[in-house]
């Protein structure tokens, strides 16, 4: 059983919540979300907000706070082979109510189909808030290039 090692990033000003499934091996090693250099998450959100791509953990946190984004994962602990979402089993979910009670979250977005499936199955029944599935920023989602991802993800930017 692997326990999620990364604390959620949010504050009372957060307006958008983005949830992934579970951190990759590389992210767990780095101690922060989307730590694999091939994952396009940071490049995509930076382009959505027309900013430089943050590189350090401090820069990434500052970017999230500035753009009022809360970030965490659906799964709090599980068994997983490497970084493969398809191998996830024996799931325990994170309690996202701590974010929802603190911040006025206008929308919940899921990074990829697996995160969306886990959200629908485990969190929706208690949270009772619709989640919106966005295409995964994982390099495994090769069908979506950076331009297409950025266009799809632009919905996270408030009008």
SS elements, strand count:
7
In round numbers, the mean pLDDT is 94
Spans where pLDDT lies below 50 across 5 or more residues: none
Q: From the 3D coordinates, which CATH architecture would you assign?
A: 3-Layer(aba) Sandwich
What's the CATH H-level superfamily name? Uracil-DNA glycosylase-like domain
Termini distance? 41 Å
Major sheet: 4 strands, parallel
CATH class: Alpha Beta
Radius of gyration over C-alpha positions, nearest whole angstrom: 14 Å
**Structural class, from helix and strand content?**
alpha/beta
Overview of the molecule:
The structure is a single chain. Helix 2 (41-48) crosses helix 6 (146-153). Helices cover 33% and strands 19% of the residues. The chain is an alpha/beta fold and 159 residues long. The chain has helices spanning 25-30, 41-48, 57-66, 97-102, 113-127, 146-153, and strands at residues 2-3, 16-20, 69-73, 75-79, 89-93, 107-111, 131-134. It has one domain (2-156): Uracil-DNA Glycosylase, subunit E (3-Layer(aba) Sandwich), CATH 3.40.470.10. The strands form two sheets. The chain has a four-stranded parallel β-sheet. The chain has a three-stranded antiparallel β-sheet with strand order 1-4-5, covered by helices on one side. It contains six helices and seven strands.
